[in-house]
Every structure is written in structure tokens, then in C-alpha cells.
Alanine racemase (Sedimentitalea todarodis), 760 residues
Amino acid sequence: MSDVRLSDLSTPCLLVDEAIMKRNIDRLSRYAASLGVTLRPHLKTTKSVEAARYVLADEYGPATVSTLAEAEIFAEAGITDILYAVGISPDKLDRVVALHRAGCRLIVLLDSIAQAEAVAAASKDSGIAIPAMIEIDSDGHRSGLTADDPALIDVGRILNAGGAELCGVLCHAGESYGAIGRAAQAVCAEQERRAVVDASDRLRDTGLPCPVVSAGSTPTAHAAKDLTGVTELRAGVYVFFDLVMAGIEVCDVDDIALSVLTTVIGHQTTRGWTICDAGWMAMSRDRGTASQRVDQGYGVVCDESGKVIPGLIVIQANQEHGVIAPYPKFDGDLPDLPLGTRLRILPNHACATAAQHQHYHVIPVEADAPLASWRRFGGW
Amino acid sequence: MSDVRLSDLSTPCLLVDEAIMKRNIDRLSRYAASLGVTLRPHLKTTKSVEAARYVLADEYGPATVSTLAEAEIFAEAGITDILYAVGISPDKLDRVVALHRAGCRLIVLLDSIAQAEAVAAASKDSGIAIPAMIEIDSDGHRSGLTADDPALIDVGRILNAGGAELCGVLCHAGESYGAIGRAAQAVCAEQERRAVVDASDRLRDTGLPCPVVSAGSTPTAHAAKDLTGVTELRAGVYVFFDLVMAGIEVCDVDDIALSVLTTVIGHQTTRGWTICDAGWMAMSRDRGTASQRVDQGYGVVCDESGKVIPGLIVIQANQEHGVIAPYPKFDGDLPDLPLGTRLRILPNHACATAAQHQHYHVIPVEADAPLASWRRFGGW
């Protein structure tokens, strides 16, 4: 057991506030239960076996992933009910079959006849009825068939007749990330629900099975008022939250569990700049708040304890340099931040910032307890 | 010895074209020699011991790095002449001293009296005269003292009298990344040269030593016409080049040695979209061309062999999805890209894209030879 304290960490590095993370997880777990749906958390944000233990209802899942590398690592750790929520390409089916043979029920996602034919063929070849969901598009954001697309029934029939397992339908309301406020997000949630429920009705009306009706994104999962017909809810970034989510009022800035610890390495006094060692390599290049009402630059500046310093953001970033300065029109008092001062920066986008790091340093709920270190993985 | 072919690779993954990389390296090596300066390549772009061997003049260096983790890993590999070109914070001096004790001559960078005092104190405490360069600012881009700043002499004296080793002055013309064309970049190069030479003159005029006069960025290193008074040149991204460098005419698109191999995973025919598995996790969130004359989206699309497909870019990206579509006003013919088609995407910013990956898959100069795999590291 290590005895690492915050003051022992070399900067920049990634911090997780365990108490805030637990609160975020508990909030959505309770909400999903109140709506009568199973929560299938997306592990793409954390990519950590230790973090997954906090968020999963059971040892084996259910879980959502965005890469086969995630599926392989989580399966190795005993998580065996996994949805791979990115459209399957035929050349990846060998790895899908290998995961099934290793005891992981990996569900694939698709939205085309060509994919359905490839999954059916792989099912026949392997003797494994590969479970598959059909992706439904509710808002033109990215992938999926619309609920009324004639191909929906064709895809369902190819899977069902071809030896695969037709599990159901899935929708992700990606446009909800641009909807500001609970009311607007509730509209997205209802649109998402409507799309998957309509699609499931069409499949069942033609005699096809559709046991799972899956919906969700972090904004819609927190805003949905009624999920009649939906069986499962997905969300990912809520575990940590971030400035983009705060900017659309899904959470408060106080709900952000992830930050980057940084040290002041210089000043440009005439320009009012403080230079720190959190550049884009530590923060990521994500500038999700640039298109929001308040542009938070490369992140909001907090003191070492995590308290927001009013007025200060990281206005620009190079690879290993962050430039801290006030918001454009800020005219309040600013603290002195001498060389060596340690600060925390709250990120635009938790998924992107976490991806720049190999470890989480976890500030424990118990004051004065040592920090845990969780390994974070990447790759595909 | 592995026998990996391009067709064996699972996507997305990172490719390096060895022939192009060698050509880029040779071009700048010859140019630096013609200007009579030592080239000290920046290893922050590649972060790979194998790649470093191509770019370094000698087994031991000289090299530039952006993190102490780079210094530690490269020192372990026998590279012992290293400049850490990010302003030093006092809490990192323990690791600097440890590197010296392990046989690495690590040069630190600073631009303030507080840093100079800390380096002098660490030199005294450790009995090691820590070599230090003073950072000079030629264009208001980021860090450094202007050549006429009174603090320059104070910093030099504190280092020289305090037990550290005053090595010289260093300038990085960061604004040159916004200068379009060789002529404009030559102006930045002369401004950068002028700033460090003026600073070195001031130090020497007061009797202080200044053996090293270091300048450079990829744009200025390729554009400088005369480097009188400069002893060493630095550049990093030229090894791979990227769309940002092509956009300011430092290189051609054909000079880009780095790409991401991707597979088509779907289509949204009514919107004219092809969906691939290179999202921002594989490409990075860097959108450096967004402010250039031609916005290349998340990257330029090539066929599997690396030939640019005219008209196609990645117009948007989610974590594991890239959306391929034509430039806004493109009206030429577009190829059919069915499910499973493999493509390469050229990146906006090689440093940022490479940082998303743990390996380089190296397409060898010799046709039909197997691909090498180089480990890439991250962290601080």
C-alpha cells in the first residue's frame, strides 16, 4: 500500500475526487432505478478497471465500451456483459468471436444490410449466435437508421434468420450535447425514446424479437421524464462530468470530479499571463466550450484544494505550456500565483482529458488518507 | 522478427512512412549543416527511442525534450546530451539532479530570477553545476525575457555566481506557425536570430559566458537564410510534418510521413457521409487548420496506399467515429467507399495525433518488407 499524498505528485497529472465521483454515480443510479430501466454505464470515459468497479451494478456488468481493446481488458477483469457501441466492421468479427469464446457476451452494433450479412456469416462460421443491436437515429447526429427506414426490417431479418441473435435497438441522442437546460434535454430524451420504441414496435410487428430497447447519453439520461418502452439507459461522462456538461446545465461546476494538477512555471507580467505546466498534452486539444455561452478556454483554474479561483481560465495552450489569464472582460481581483504554485484545472471534456494520461490519482473520501492510483489504458 | 503486413493491422492505428520520414530528416540535416549550426532535434513529436535513432546525429544526442519523462527514458537509452525546453519549476530539480547523477547532461530552461535562484540553490546543494539556458522572447508568443530586459543580466549573474552553469540563450519563434510562406517565415527566423544574438551580446558584454545561442522552430529552421551568431538550431515536427505545416507552406502534403489507418464502418447516404473508425481518439482534437486558408477538418483522406483522394476530408469526429465527406464546395467525382474499405487520414498536427497512440507501425522503405513496430511513450 502506497502512502502518496497530493504534495508528492509530480505535475502535470490527473486527479479524481472520489467523493464527487461517487455522488455523480449514485445520482444517476438512483434516477435510472426510479425510471425503471437498467443502467449500462459507458466505460469509455474512465477506461480503468478500478473505476469500472465503482460504476457497474454487478461484477460482470452490464457495461458499454467504445473499442475492442476496452472489451478485451474489461473481459479479462471478469466483466462479461458488454455492449460495443460503435458500428462493427467485418474485419473486427474475429476479435468478437474470440471474446465470446473467452466467456464474454459481447453485443455488437450495426445499421446496414452489409454489416448484418457479415455478422450472420461470422455467426454461422463460428457456431456462436453473435448478439447484435440495430442502431437507430433520432436526430441526424451520426449513425443509425431512422425508425421508419425500410432497411430496419431487412437488417432484423438477416440477423434473425442468418444465425445471429437480434437483441434489440439502440439510440444515442448526440444532438443533446447542444441542448441547453433540462427542458431542452428532456425534449431530446423523448425524441430518443420515441425513435427506439417506434423501431422496436416495427420489428415486433413483423414477428422479430426485440428484447432490449436501449437509449441514452449523459444529457438525456439525466433529463428523461418517462422511459416507457425503454429497457436500458446508457451514459458515460457523468461519472466525472466536465465544463461542457456544466455549460449546458447537466451538472454544476462543483460536480466535476476530474482535474489536472499543475505547477506555475513562469509569468509574462506585462501581458498578465501566468504560465503553467498543463499544456494541451495534459488537458487535450478539446475546446468544447468554445461554442458554448461561456468559452472556458482550455479549462477553469482552481487552487490546489480544488476551489475555483473566480475569473481565471487557461486562455491558450501549447504542448507543455498553459497560459493562465482572466476571462476577457473580468475586472475583479486576482490572486498572486508565484513560481511553484500548484493549481488544478477543470477540463472541457473529461473523456478527452483523461485520454492524455496513464493514471488517475484518486483523492480519497477520507481526509488525510493516502491517494490511490488507478491505471488507465488506451489503444484499440 | 515479426512479419506484420499493412493488411494485418487492426484499425485505427498509426502509420509512419519510413521513406518520407528519412527524406524530411535528411533535408533539414543538410540545411542546418549548410547554415553552419548544430541541429538539436526536438523529440517531443516522436517520443520513441527507435524514432530518435533516425533523427539524432550521434548516439548521445544532442536532443531537445518537452518533459522530464522524455529525458528519463531517452537517458536510459543512452542519449545523454538533452535540453529540457520548458521552463523549470523548483519542485522538478530533484529529478534534474537525479538525471545528472545517472550520467545525463540535462540542460534546463528559465526566464526569471526566482527560477535562477532555485537552480543555483539546487546546484549548491547537489554539488552539480546544473547547466541552464535563459529563454528569450522574440515575438510575444509565450515565455522568455526580451533581449533588452534588465532581468536578463540579473538572471545570468545569479546562475553564474551561484554555482550553476550558464550555458547560453534560447529562443523559439512560436508566432512563425502563423506566418504563411517561406518569405514570411524568413522574417520570423531573422527576428528569432536577432533576439538571441542580441541577448548573447548583452551577456558577454557584462563578462558573462554564453557559449550556446539556440534558435528554432520547424518553420524558421527551414526558412532561415543566415544564422550568424547562432550556434544551434532546434525543430521537432519536421520529422513527420502535418497539414498545419503544409497549410503554411513549410512542406507539401506529400511530405507528411504520419497517418492514421482507418476502416469504413457505415454510411449516411442521404447526408453524403461515410463513417470510419478514426474519431478524435485516433486523430486527436487538434483542429489547427481551422484557422488556416483551407480548413482540413479532422484530416485529409487517402486511400490505403497513402494517395490523397481529392475532395475528401474528415468533417467531424466523435470519440471513435470520424465522418468523411467532401469539402463544402467540392463538386468533383467521389469514389465508392463500401463497408470495410481501408483508408489513411493525414493529421492536422503530428505531435497531437501521435500522442493518441502507443505504437508506430512503420511502412519500410523496401517494398514488400514487413512493418516495424516502434513503441511510443507518454506521461510526465
Summary: Residues 68 and 95 of chain A are 8 Å apart (CA to CA). Chain A has eleven helices and 17 strands. The radius of gyration of chain A is 22 Å.
